[in-house]
Amino acid sequence: MMISPFYLLLIVLTLVSFLIQWRLRSKFTQYSKIGLQSGLSGKQVAELMLADNNIRDVRVVSTEGRLSDHYNPADKTVNLSAEVYEGRSAAAAAVAAHECGHAVQHATAYSMLQFRSAMVPALSAVSRFMPFILLAGILMIRTSVIPLGLGIALFSLTTLFSFVTLPVEFDASKRALAWIDRRGIVTPQEHGMAKDALWWAAMTYVVAAISSLATLLYYVQIFMGGSRRE
Concatenated DSSP letters for 65-89? Predict the structure, then answer.
């Protein structure tokens, strides 16, 4: 029995995503065991970076979960997981600075972050019923391609969001690495560890974007096959 190229691609991407997630956790665990020479905690690094960028209305808070770190533009909070918030390693400093990089993007009206934020309400609305529309579209493909076409249009928004996220994440890491160097937060060796940790984190977004595109193309293939039968 032949496996569809799209199914094979999705399987490969799923495995790659799993391996990258595993590698990211492995790297973070490894680097977290090496104390930062400056002795600063992730919380202190975050607060210092915010202050250096003259951002006074953003709070640094601790959040539950491992590697659950994120910046919330709605309530202006840099949310750091406990191991980053309390950690005193190159990995903790890198993640804390990266999330503050998003706060700097917000404060300076970085265009790609604004674009991504503008997409969130629409995505939140369509994500509730999009899977049902896609399923209905596939089941009804022999009678009408309209439902699947609608589902593809909605799913394309999630794919676009995944790709818009990439420059936002890479830019935040670039800002973080430049600042921790300029401020003397890390030594040259620690910089290498920080850069490596952020690179693996960025790869999770890259694979997610490619996976979303592959899934979109799979639905498009089904749509094209159905439209030829009409």
Answer: STT--EEETTTTEEEEEHHHHS--B
